[in-house]
Amino acid sequence: MVLDGMLNTICQRRSPSLELLTCLSVRSAVPAQCGFAGRTVLNILHVAVVVGASGLCAASPLLAEGVGVAPTVFRATQGEIVEIVLSVSDRSTTVTGTWRGTNVPFFSLSDSTTMVGLVGADLASKLGKDALNVTMTSPQGTETRRFFIEVVDASFPVQRLTLPNNMVDLDVAILKRVRKEAKHLRSIFAHTRVPRAWTDSFVAPLDGKISGAFGRRRFINGQKKNPHTGEDISAPQGAQVQASNRGIVRLATEQFFSGKSILIDHGLGLFTMYFHLSEMLVNEGDTVDRGAVIGLVGSTGRATGPHLHWGARLNNARVDPYELIRMNVGSSRTNVRAQ
Q: Dihedral angle at the C-alpha atoms of 7, 8, 11, 12, nearest 10 degrees?
């Protein structure tokens, strides 16, 4: 993600008891400057925000809309995750957001004063800039501020595959099955108000060579098909697959394209998927912990050989699952206070 904009103090702190210190976390080579231990955080929003009758006061253009300074624009490549980190002085403060008509839930970390929101840019998300509206509510009042996220082209490569015709040109019965399975998945992904189930950082489901297949535009037997929505990890038949984090198993069944498939709901609209398994070792409704063995690598469904397809959905956005690891989503941080 790339930050456009400048830092410039445009107001003064008014009421220390109502301060809200805000930082935005982006993946960057810049070292942590906001006090989040072990994180790569760019201190773009070192601000004191007053919520209540006296209004909201900002010391950065990110919250400066309406005071003569252009709002900051963040650029996210298709398939990436934007993580918003807010540190609040009032533990009763709640934060909600919306972007492109999708709710952005915020959750508090263990210190109860650090709020985190996750925004996913779908791998096929339309390019361009749209407002991210964030509403902060405390006993002193409610304020809504506007940020901007601009989605830029990921320039995903093209992949050409040759498969048996019966796996590509579907007959009426198979097509009916595929549509039914897709409808069921959509119903699962629609449940975005489940509480957060994880507290630790995410881990890879297994060790293996990563193909770099996420987002590839696929042509199968010369026909244009949907882009590849996950990452393929090469591993031998029967290798153990672990849950990337704690959650509830919402799907454990065999499907036409994905074969033996497991889907874990981590809460707040975040799901991870594990496809083409040879065996499933959990059942729908089970709660699994991070690192729990949930299945074995296979080549069931539409697959050319043993591997794991690992995917992630964030509020219906198809995102690169390795973003969850690179961004260390959900890890503990040292709290931030205004000085």
A: 80
- Where do you find CATH 2.70.70.10 in the chain? 158-324
Say if residues 20 and 86 touch (Cβ distance below 8 Å): yes
C-alpha to C-alpha distance for 21 and 113, rounded to whole angstroms = 10
Model pTM score: 0.78
CB atoms within 10 A of CB 323: 22
Query: Going by C-beta distance under 8 Å and a sequence separation of 6 or more, which residues neighbour residue 159?
Result: 213, 216, 217, 218, 219, 228
Pinpoint the residues of the chain covered by CATH 2.60.40.10. Answer: 2-154
pLDDT per 10-residue tile (average), the chain, 339 residues:
29 31 35 31 27 28 38 84 82 90 88 84 95 89 87 88 76 92 94 89 94 84 83 96 97 96 97 98 97 97 92 95 85 36
Neighbour-count burial of 46, counting CB atoms closer than 10 A to its CB (0-12 exposed, 13-18 middle, 19+ buried): middle
Q: What is the CATH number of domain 158-324?
A: 2.70.70.10
Residue reference for tokens 């003064």: 12
Contact partners, residue 65, CB within 8 Å, separation at least 6 = 71, 145, 146
Tokens of 227: 């882009």
Name, in order, each residue with C-beta under 8 angstroms of 102's C-beta and a sequence gap of 6 or more: 315, 316, 317
59 and 9 Cβ atoms separated by less than 8 Å: yes
> Residue 193 burial (CB < 10 Å; 0-12/13-18/19+)?
exposed
Please identify which residue in the block is written with the tokens 């301060």. Answer: 19
Q: If 0-12 CB within 10 Å is exposed, 13-18 middle and 19+ buried, where does residue 153 land?
A: exposed
Report CA torsion sign: 176, 181, 182, 184: positive
Residue 302 DSSP label: S
The tokens of 309 are what? Answer: 């397809």
158-161/217-220 β-pairing: parallel
| Residue 190: DSSP 8-state | T
65, 71 Cβ separation under 8 angstroms: yes
What superfamily would CATH give domain 2-154? Immunoglobulins (2.60.40.10)
